Amino acid sequence: ASLGVVELTVALHYVYNTPYDQLVWDVGHQAYGHKILTGRRDNFATNRKYKGLSGFPKRSESKFDTFGVGHSSTSISAALGMAMAAKYKGENRKAVAVIGDGSMTAGMAFEAMNHAGVADSDVLIILNDNCMSIDPNVGALKEYLTDISTSPTYNKVRDEIWNLMGKLPIGRKFSRDMASKLEASVKGVVSKSSNLFEALQLRYFGPIDGHNITKLVDTLKDLKEIPGPKLLHIVTVKGKGYSLAEKDQTKWHAP
Asked: DSSP letters of 146-200?
């Protein structure tokens, strides 16, 4: 069920200092790889069985499970609360929420983004866009995200900007900062891609290939150095790498 976020899971635990840096998964189906990487590999066969591992992140089960997940759409609120607490306590810890496009349609997710945009807290929202919830997604947000992901003009220009700025002999971080500013300008000219999220005062990055682990690691390292509320949009395939799950994503959304 969590094959679509295997690369993201590895990249997050590689870049961030978990559990000091706090990682919130929106639904349990995303978090199986996370559980395997955080000390529960040997008894993972008990997952979702009586007296076995919980099918969801569970605080009493592991210090790496930062939030007791219910079903969906709560991760941004939780991560934002953690980020605000860290800020008030003067702790240099990061907070990351991983949320799918199916969960993003809930009102609670929008309330949290609305709050995050004005809270001035260091929270990263990762939008895992695979066009699936339990069944294929429908509605205006789905169409909007498809618009972003498939804009060839915007994606081509964005990639060329990042590649060019990364080669300039003025320091990698400064180059990427300049690239981000250029990218923001380009968005308004060639695409409507960031209007929704940046209207909520979230810095928008992406979309990027959620199965390219090198790109994920490089991007997360860059975003870790950028303060404030931000959203990274990744595009993935539900059930990636297992043909049965890729072909029948509804049937295999949870097993």
From this structure: HHHHT-HHHHHHHHHHHHHHHHSSS-HHHHHHHHHHHHHHHHHHH--TTHHHHHT
